[in-house]
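User: Can you recover a sequence for this backbone? Please restate the input before giving your answer.

Assistant: Of course. Working from this structure:
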């Protein structure tokens, strides 16, 4: 039985509602921006990516609450949101023709081999950063029936009042019976630009996490985002889950409301060669487990295990941006549909891996492809 109290799907119009910023990312491929002459435009945003992936790959009914600006870039972004099947709830802004408000621009080349990707931002006068409590009509949105509310740490640090808005939305969603999730994604540089700095960031994250059922974040996020002391994670292997599970016990002691914690484990060998795994803490139990730990048949056996333990996948990465959001999407899909915890972690692990094989920030995978990889599928030609 699920430890999450999910509202019945047939009583709701929206499976997941995300709160966050929409951005447009300019991608010149493997060419550094200083030499670029053309680029692709991707519509993105950590919280939006989760909603878009759940809609396009997993067939869930999702929505995004965010700011929208009435100008050409806003029209482009709106078209992409519709294309992905995400229902929008926009707070409108008018562009003055000169300085904004704006939809943020992200400049990001992909790097190659020993040359890492380089990401730069222009978030000046960003409309989504201007949002504050009272700007979103939560009661009107929640009246449609919402099963899950999701937001993240990047949006929390984006503006002076965006963390307060997350808290307002999350508390309203919980009062309406929704499950809540938060991807810590702690960004010290963003918090440093706001009144109160990183100390305010830790305090606000802790206030938000008091209302969270499902927490996503690695050991470094837990340390820096919630203010815990710990080992220097940058000097440790990114694929060792032991310290992560130890940290979870500390987090759970302070936040007994948390029922699920999960993270990816990534080790970067080069820009295009990554080791990739993931772990899940589910109501005191650790996943993945060995195949041998499960019965050979019956209701207690997960559907997405065959003969192979879930280990480290060796990725040939096309574009790493969005892999973590891909993991969160697959995990949340499993939890929303009350799948076995082993299936949930495998769905996140497989979908996040597939997302790194596409350009852009959102999924081009199908559920069939995700489940095949989660079962241990190969890259043989599909005929």
């Amino acid at each position: 039985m699920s430890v999450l109290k999910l509202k019945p799907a047939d009583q709701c119009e929206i499976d997941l509602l995300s709160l966050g910023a929409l951005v447009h990312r300019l991608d010149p491929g493997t060419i550094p921006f200083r030499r670029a002459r053309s680029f692709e435009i991707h519509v993105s945003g950590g919280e939006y990516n989760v909603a878009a992936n759940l809609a396009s790959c997993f067939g869930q009914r999702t929505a995004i609450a965010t700011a929208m600006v009435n100008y050409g870039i806003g029209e482009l972004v709106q078209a992409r949101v519709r294309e992905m099947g995400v229902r929008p709830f926009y707070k409108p802004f008018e562009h003055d023709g000169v300085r904004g408000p704006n939809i943020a621009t992200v400049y990001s080349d992909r790097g190659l081999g020993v040359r890492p990707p380089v990401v730069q931002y222009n978030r000046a006068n960003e409309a989504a950063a201007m949002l504050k409590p009272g700007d979103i009509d939560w009661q009107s949105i929640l009246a449609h029936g919402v099963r899950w509310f999701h937001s993240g740490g990047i949006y929390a640090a984006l503006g002076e009042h965006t963390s307060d808005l997350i808290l307002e939305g999350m508390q309203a969603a919980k009062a309406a019976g929704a499950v809540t999730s938060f991807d810590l994604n702690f960004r010290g540089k963003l918090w440093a630009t706001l009144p109160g700095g990183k100390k305010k960031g830790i305090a606000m994250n802790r206030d938000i996490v008091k209302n969270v059922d499902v927490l996503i974040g690695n050991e470094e996020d837990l340390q820096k985002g919630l203010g815990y002391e710990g080992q220097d994670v940058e000097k440790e292997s990114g694929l060792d889950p032991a310290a992560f599970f130890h940290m979870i016990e500390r987090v759970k002691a302070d936040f007994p409301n948390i029922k699920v914690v999960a993270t990816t484990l990534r080790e970067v060998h080069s820009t295009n060669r990554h080791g990739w795994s993931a772990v899940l803490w589910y109501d005191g139990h650790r996943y993945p487990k060995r195949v041998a730990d499960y019965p050979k048949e019956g209701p207690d056996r997960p559907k997405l295990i065959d003969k192979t333990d879930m280990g480290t996948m060796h990725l040939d990465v096309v574009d790493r941006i969005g892999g973590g959001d891909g993991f969160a999407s697959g995990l949340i899909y499993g939890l929303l549909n009350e799948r076995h915890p082993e299936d949930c972690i495998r769905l996140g692990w497989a979908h996040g891996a597939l997302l790194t094989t596409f350009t852009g920030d959102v999924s081009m995978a199908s559920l069939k492809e995700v489940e095949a990889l989660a079962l241990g599928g190969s890259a043989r030609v599909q005929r």
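That completes the design. The chain has one domain: 9-374.
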